[in-house]
Amino acid sequence: MSGGKIKKQSLFFLLTIFILFVPWGISVNADSMNQKQYIYDYAELLSETEVEELESLSSELSEQMNTAFMVITVNGMDGKDIIPYVQDFYDEHAPGYDQPHGNTSILTIDLQTRDVYLAGFKKAEQYLDDARLDMVRNKITPDLSQGNYFQAFSVYIHTAHDYMGFKPGVNPENILFKWWFQLAVSLIVAGIIVALMAYRSGGRVTVSAQNYMNNNQSGILNKYDNYIRQTVTKQKKPSSNTKSGGGGGGGISRGGHSHSGSRGKF
Amino acid sequence: MILHYKCPSCGSDMSFDSESGELACDSCGRQDKIESYPEDLITTTFSEDEAKEYHCENCGAVLITEAETTATSCSFCGAGVVIADRLSGHLAPAKVIPFTISKEEATKAFQKWCRKGLLTPKGFMNADRIKSITGMYVPFWLFDLNSKVQVNAVCTKVRMYTRGEYIYTETKYYDAFRDINLDYVKIPVDASEKMNDGLMDKLEPYPYDQLKNFKTPYLAGYIAEKYNYTDEELLPRAKDKISGYIDSYIRSTLTGYHSVNYKEKTIDTRNVNSYYVLLPVWMVIYDYNQSEHTFAMNGQTGKVVGKPPISSGKVSMWFGGIAAGSLLALKCASYFLGGGFW
Description:
Chain B: This is DNA-directed RNA polymerase subunit RPC12/RpoP. The complex is a heterodimer. By secondary structure, chain A is an alpha/beta fold. Helices cover 42% and strands 20% of the residues of chain A. Chain B has four domains: 1-45, no CATH class; 47-90, Rubrerythrin, domain 2 (Single Sheet), CATH 2.20.28; 99-310, no CATH class; 311-342. Chain B contains five helices and 16 strands. In chain B, strand 15 and strand 16 (304-305) form a beta hairpin.
């Protein structure tokens, strides 16, 4: 008898879900005029197909964020440190999705020194600050250590791309931003409210102690609060400096381009 | 109605002494004026041919009606096998709260209540299949209880402060004692075996200022159920009903502390007074989808209780709507916090 009604209800339900999940944010952008190559595999850690795959992944995600996600692998830097190496690379090659010396994020690894360095220039300096680059580095270091370079690089490209979707200053790994958390919370909230509605549909107890208490005769006859003793415990203030392991942060290249950064070993 | 006066000194029945115009006790010789005789000690019983009692052969219910009213079917199970019996000598109710809601008003109020159900099926909301609606006086015991409470507890107050490089936590311990007297009056406990206790508890509160001395004419047109339990049997349930009130009262006297750890808690609850009363309830039996649903309505306030059927379609609609709404709200929150919408 209510078959038609249920159909209508579920249609309404599906429509709501559809509206919620349809992606609005499709941006239209032409291929970068400046950025043609994203993967510089000098150390030859990847096969040809892997390079191709990463190139296409990076060019697609780079387009969405208007920022080039680059990977450089080297085997020895002729005595140069990894940070100046990356700075000079940026100065010389002038990468950038939007323009030469433009928005760029670079992951660099050196197999000889086993250094890993992440840098963000221009827009990426702001959206991939030191803290976020630290988080990306911590995420991929295990893969790098085990030699899963292709895996580590694609995780880097995906994560850096995702993190740039968050306003600067907020923690992108905040559980509030996870879709599964949001979905779970809304399902739980709905479940609790509907269960409460069903429970209360049969009427509920509306009397309280005030309905039956005789206030004239009720009360405290006698009371005391005697202080006995006290204990004091002390605890060292947690130090606010929590930076550890690698770090290094950003800097300014010789060409005058400032950048964020995160440095570590793998 | 036959009134019995119990002697306040020795407990045996007092009789009226026409010579002195006072109540006199044959056993101990005590004399009391009728006007000053304490009302609590009067018990009333039904006189002969004043009221009738019916036993249902089918479900075992025992009903009381006025002598002129004849019951032909049981108002609980609807079976037509009721056996009449005389009720003389039985304990009569001390007080009654009469019905103020008529049958028509009760029907209307019930229909209005049905329409308010957010989860009830549409077919139920019409409320056009009321099978029967019966005005019934349900037997209750009203208890006046007195509780003497002594509590001893160790309580703490915690303060945190920083000096230099350290955070200090200072905990002060107190020995707290409370001696409390609590009076609860007219705690209703239903004395009917047939009525669901939970359902009856939800019908409260009744306006106790409307309590009238019981007279048989109040029963005219209604059916009363006979009590199945004595006040002694129901005292534990009355104590149980106020135990939560007592606990929250104790807690309210120990404020200002961060933690309260009870070392000793003695609660001595005594029955000061209990009386047998009849409270008005409309019983509504409703046919829906080949099954009967029973509802009860407070005959004074019109409050309806009872489990209505629940429509799965409406449940899923509400569930989907609330889930989608809160998801949207969370997405917006995440957007404003800088997390992007997707």
